[in-house]
Amino acid sequence: MAFKDKSVWIIGASSGIGKALAIDMAKAKAKIILSSRNIEELKKVQEECLKLTDYCVSLKLDLEFNGDYSKEVGEVLSHYSTIDYLLLVGGVSQRSYVFETPESIDRKLMEINYFGNVSITKAVLPTMIKQKSGHIVVVSSIAGKFGWPLRSAYSASKHALHGFFESLRAEQVSNNIIVTMAVPGRVLTNISQNALLKDGSKHGKLDSGQEKGISAESCSMQIIAAIKKNKKEVLIGGKEIYMVWIRKFLPFLFYSFAAKSESNK
Ligand SMILES: NC(=O)c1ccc[n+]([C@@H]2O[C@H](COP(=O)([O-])OP(=O)(O)OC[C@H]3O[C@@H](n4cnc5c(N)ncnc54)[C@H](OP(=O)(O)O)[C@@H]3O)[C@@H](O)[C@H]2O)c1
After folding, report:
1. Cα dihedral sign for 126, 154, 139, 46?
2. Catalytic (active-site) positions
3. What's the 42 CA to ligand 1 centre distance in angstroms?
4. 38 lines ligand 1 (CB under 6 A)
5. Which of 139, 203, 223, 240 is the pocket-test mutation for ligand 1 (most atoms within 8 Å of CB)?
6. Residue 2 domain-assigned?
7. Tens digits of per-residue pLDDT, 191-242?
8. 154-202 tens-digit pLDDT
9. What is the CATH number of the domain that holds 221?
10. Exposure letters 100-128 (e unless 16+ CB within 10 A, then b)
11. Is residue 47 situated within a structural domain?
């Protein structure tokens, strides 16, 4: 019953983890707003959600726009009078070495994965502060806990999310605004196909590691369990998430794994 009649705005709802979260929120009878760039895909997700809940709308939004999202917030509030949950799921990965990646690609990944989420949060915050309640869920990555070959800007953008949202969490305790950082390892979605290469084109391949990932549905279930428990952070995935602990307690082993990783060939 936790999400029944609660308004849930999901950014990055057209595919993968965001889509699975949308379906689970619909099963829980939430009032859903689906956002991302691809309105055709959003409409398909909306159709699925409306079989499960009475309220679901789609709102086109580009994280790379990085301007003022108050117009979009106004639109959400015109459908539902509150914003109870903001789920920041949208993101793009990377497959290129530092030496070959132009700064324009570094900046693009920062705009989408970091600044876009920061701008949306700043636009939503006055509403949550007025409500004196709200829950912001940020989908980071284990690449937000350590660096990895071919993921320099992606990893940097995810690390930046932790710094920003930990600060926000500390600031907003008195307003009852909760921040949950979801930190997935490998999830079987289109993330590797959509990852950017050095020239900005798409990688277009399902990487072997990705193929072994948990399902988006399982990832969504674990994120929802963490939201219900008001967890500050949750690691989600298979054996790869042990790398977070290896990096912390056996760093020499971590650096050896990272240098020899399959992606570093
Ligand atoms: N899959 C994994 O193994 C994994 C692991 C760790 C973390 N994550 C994180 O999980 C999140 C979801 O990724 P996924 O695995 O579900 O991959 P996905 O299937 O490729 O989904 C990515 C989502 O982000 C949206 N998006 C991308 N660029 C956007 C933009 N400029 N503006 C608005 N929305 C944008 C996409 O929608 P549109 O194309 O319609 O805009 C799509 O809904 C990402 O933040 C990713 O970094 C994934």
Report:
1. positive
2. 154
3. 13
4. yes
5. 139
6. no
7. 999 999 999 999 999 998 888 999 999 999 999 999 999 999 999 999 999 9
8. 999 999 999 999 999 999 999 999 999 999 999 999 999 999 999 999 9
9. 3.40.50.720
10. ebeeebbebbbbbbbbbbbbbbebbbebb
11. yes
Q: Which atom of ligand 1 is nearest to the CA of 42?
A: 40
> Among residues 62, 178, 56, which one has the least CA distance to residue 116?
62
Domain total of the chain: 1
Residue nearest to ligand 1 atom 28, measured at CA: 91
Q: Which of 215, 194, 218, 216 is nearest to 206 (CA)?
A: 194
Q: Domain span at residue 239?
A: 7-264
List Cβ neighbours of 130 (8 Å cut-off, separation of 6 or more): none
Please, how many CA atoms are within 13 Å of residue 93, restricted to the half-sphere of its CB?
Answer: 28
Q: Is the CB of 14 under 6 A from ligand 1?
A: yes
Answer yes or no: is the C-beta of 36 below 6 A from any ligand 1 atom: yes
Q: In this structure, which amino acid lies at residue 226?
A: A
List all residues 6 or more positions away from 222 whose beta carbon is below 8 Å from its beta carbon. Answer: 182, 234, 236
Tokens, residue 249: 């307690």
Look at the pTM and tell me if it is higher than 0.90.
Answer: yes
Closest residue (by CA) to atom 34 of ligand 1?
A: 36
Residue 231 counted as domain residue: yes
- In short, whether 219's Cβ falls inside 6 Å of ligand 1 is no
Tell me the pLDDT tens digit for each residue of 24-74. 999 999 999 999 999 999 999 999 999 999 999 999 999 998 789 999 999
Does some domain include residue 33?
A: yes
